[in-house]
Amino acid sequence: MKIAILLKNGPCTDEADRALQTAADMLVQGHTVSLYLLQEAVRFCGPAMKCSSSMGLQGLIEKNLKVHVLTRDAELRGINAPSADQAILEGSYESLVDLMASCDRVVGIL
Length: 110
Prior knowledge:
Elements (H helix, E strand, L loop, with lengths): L1 E6 L6 H15 L3 E6 L14 H11 L3 E5 H6 L11 E4 L1 H10 L2 E5 L1
Helix pairs in contact: 1-2
């Protein structure tokens, strides 16, 4: 099953922890999971923070979690778009809609 998780809360929040735990659980079950970072969640692309969720994201990426960031929200917060060597993909409102349309399930942790 292809699943999209939308997250608007930044690192070091209960919602971020819940989103990452949900993604981890679904990956273990063999699902294809994409995490789309919106609003304050784009701060996962900024300087590393000292909290469990920011460290857990990299581990999930290594387990094939696909992570997208809404570039416009990142720009509004002064965060640079991910570079080519990062596993986080740039996204737009159009790519968000396309992802949601292509998934079997969409989970909003908003």
